[in-house]
Write a structure and sequence with these properties.
- This protein is mainly beta.
- It has 2 helices and 8 strands.
Length: 136
């Protein structure tokens, strides 16, 4: 099993008509080898340096709308973390997703940045789409 901060799982969202990838995300770990859970602010700081950090806003809604394209077998022991404030009255509550195998569906729920975050959590970041290489 790789060190948590070396985990990077791709999530490809494809156009259902063409099969072409229209958005690409990655779910990444953030803990160093042997490290205990860390606070939410530290978790977000560790993933912020690449690809704009954890997703917010329209990306959160887009992932939720296309949840059927997130392979549950890849994330059965994980939950996916965004940096989207879930409720303006509680700005430290962020939106998360997990897969409920018993109900065979994804759930959207809130957790606090003030809690300690450990190995089950993976942060979702948006990746740039690969550039098409011209044929020689």
């Amino acid at each position: 099993m790789p060190t948590h901060n070396k985990i990077s799982k791709l999530i490809e969202i494809k156009d259902k008509a063409t099969g072409k990838i229209i958005r690409l995300y990655e779910a990444v770990g953030f803990l160093n080898e042997g490290e205990a859970p860390i606070g939410g602010d530290e978790m977000m700081a560790r993933v912020a340096n690449e690809n704009g950090g954890a997703i917010i806003g329209e990306d959160v809604d887009f992932v939720w709308k296309h949840q059927d394209q997130i392979p549950p077998e890849e994330f059965q022991i994980n939950f996916l973390v965004t940096n989207q404030c879930a409720d303006p009255e509680f700005p430290r509550q962020i939106t998360c997703f997990d897969f409920d195998g018993a109900d065979n569906r994804w759930n959207r729920f809130c957790e606090s940045l003030d809690m300690m975050w450990g190995r089950p959590a993976l942060v979702i970041r948006r990746l740039p789409l690969p550039q098409a290489t011209p044929n020689p």
